[in-house]
Amino acid sequence: MKIDGTHYRSLWWNAEKDVLEIIDQRWLPHDFRVVPVATMQDFADAIYQMRVRGAPLIGATAAYGMALAMAENSSDANMDAAWTFLEKTRPTAINLRWALDRCRAALRPLPESDRAAAALQLAHEIADEDVEINRRIGEHGLALIRDIAAKKPAGEPVRLLTHCNAGWLATVDWGTATSPMYQAHDAGIALHVWVDETRPRNQGALTSWELGKHGVPHTYITDNAGGHLMQHGMVDMVITGTDRTTRRGDVCNKIGTYLKALAAHDNGVPFYVALPSPTIDWTVSGGVAEIPIEERDAQEITHIQGVTEAGEIGTVRVTPEGTPGGNPAFDVTPNRLVTGLITERGVCAASEEGLAALFPDFAQAAE
Predict the structure, then answer these.
(1) pLDDT tens, 206-222?
(2) Any catalytic annotation for residue 243?
(3) How confident is the model at residue 2, as a pLDDT?
(4) Of the listed 24, 130, 223, 243, which one is catalytic?
(5) Of 129, 159, 180, which residue is a domain's last?
């Protein structure tokens, strides 16, 4: 996507410097910073500290981390050590383990002398594949938005609501939930996007930053406003992303997604999830019981980052001193609350049968 007319991916390989570079998202939307990821500790910190975030982007970053590990020491022992070191950084987003497993499976049969070059090429391929997957998700989501637009009075926008940031910053490019929005906007369909703030890290500000740079009309709202808007007929469709989806269509996404799904169900608002296939965990059936939920640092709850009147980025405490904070980072939306899953292969029901029909190759391999 573009920032002030210049195209960016959320990460890229700097061939001249022989290093991965990323947009350090901790400082957005207030400051745009590009930083290198040069050591294995840098890779772990980038993922855990959310310098990169979003399941697809975490997976791509991990693939480049494996490439660095092979450049440093291409032995089986170091490959396994790098897998373990990176896998423990974020337990919920399945793309992390998917990318690490894919790298190890591809590299293990190769001679050690060939592994470094092959690992870097595979990381490039994983990044490029993510871009294409998300573009195709956008095409299928665009068809849904067109259907809604065709039923609207002339000049009235399609009103979408999204939670967290499932934009190009959460992927290598395009985004998942935002890809249909960008494609609809570019096709001339009138849109208005309600953007949840998404406490505690306020990732909705990233979505607002993205949409603003692309010229998509939007409004930033509190997390608790969505149900009110739905009650008053001000939301035509909800689209979110996902960090892990079970084989039966339960969806694990940023904390608060479940509440939006409940409100949508109660008000008859379609609730769709944009879903790249690497985010499907074919080994898990019941999301609430089986998906591990990451518990993050309480300081994300008790403190908040922003810009002062003097233009300086700073952090302030918003709770009484000594108050403990609980910070589960994700929740699970049962498939019964999901209208449909928007994937790179089309839209399907949030069910084991629906996913298996679109992805018979993956479903059969998991049996």
Answers:
(1) 999 999 999 999 999 99
(2) yes
(3) 81
(4) 243
(5) 129
Q: 124 is in which domain, residue-wise? A: 2-129
Tally of domains in the chain: 2
- Which tokens sit at 225? 């406003």
Question: Are 315 and 174 contained in the same domain?
Answer: yes
- Say yes or no: 223 and 289 in one domain: yes
For residue 85, give both structure tokens: 């070191």
Residue in this structure with the two tokens 């745009």, named with its chain if needed: 32
Res. 174: pLDDT tops 90: yes
Total-model pTM: 0.94
Give a three-class secondary structure readout of 146-194. Answer: HHHHHCCCCCCCEEEEECCCCCHHHCCCCCCCHHHHHHHHHCCCCEEEE
Domain end residue (candidates: 129, 162, 178): 129
Do 141 and 112 belong together in one domain? no
Q: What would the two tokens of residue 340 be?
A: 């449909």
53 among the known binding-site residues? Answer: yes
54 is in an annotated binding site: yes
* Shared domain check, 116 and 146: no
Q: Is 253 annotated as a binding residue?
A: yes
Write out pLDDT tens, residues 256-310: 999 999 999 999 999 999 999 999 999 999 999 999 999 999 999 999 999 988 9
Query: 97: annotated binding-site residue?
Result: no
The answer on whether 15 is annotated among ligand-binding residues is no
The predicted model gives 91-105 an average pLDDT of 93
